[in-house]
Amino acid sequence: MPRAYDDDNIFARILRGEIPNDTVAENDHALAFRDIAPKAPSHVLVIPKGRYVSFEDFAAHGTEAEITGFMRLCAEVVAIEGLGLEAGNQGFRAITNAGAHGVQEVAHFHLHIMGGRMMGPMLSLRD
Ligand code: 5GP
User: What's the pTM?
Assistant: First the structure.
C-alpha cells in the first residue's frame, strides 16, 4: 500500500472528533476504542494518532515516542479488558491487516486486540 495517507478515512475522522467512538484508553500518541462490529466479546482497535497507513508504514516511519506510546497503550488495553497472561487470564489475539492481501478496510494503521473467547485457528485455508 502506498504511503499516501487519506485524511478522510474513518479513523482520521474519529481522531478529529467528527465521528463518535467508545474509547477504552488514550495517551499522547495513541487511541484505543471498541470495534463497531465486534468479532469477540472484547474487540478493541488501537490506532496511532499520527498519519500512518499501515503497520509497515508505522514500523518504518513512526518516531520512537509514537511507537512506545502505541505499544504501552496496547498493554493498557490488555489489562483493562482482563485478557493478559501476567494477570492469570486466558489470553487474546492481536492482529493487523495490511493492503489488499491483508484485507485492510480502513487505511489508518490499527491493531485489533480480541479476546474473551477461544479464538480458534489463526486462519482457515482456502483458495
Ligand atoms: P480492517 O479490516 O481494516 O483491519 O478493520 C477495520 C475495522 O474497523 C473493522 O473491524 C470494522 O468493524 C471497524 N470499523 C469500521 N468503521 C468503524 C467505525 O466507524 N467505528 C468503529 N469503532 N469501528 C469501525
Answer: 0.96
Alpha helices in 27-127 (DSSP H): 55-61, 64-80, 99-102
Residue nearest to atom 24 of ligand 1 (CA): 36
Q: Which of 29, 43, 108, 110 is catalytic?
A: 110
105 CB within 6 A, ligand 1: yes
Cβ of 104 below 6 Å from ligand 1: yes
**Mean pLDDT to the nearest integer, 63-74:** 98
- pLDDT the model gives residue 123: 85
Question: Average per-residue pLDDT in the chain?
Answer: 95
The domain limits of the chain are: 16-115
Q: Which CATH class is domain 16-115?
A: alpha beta
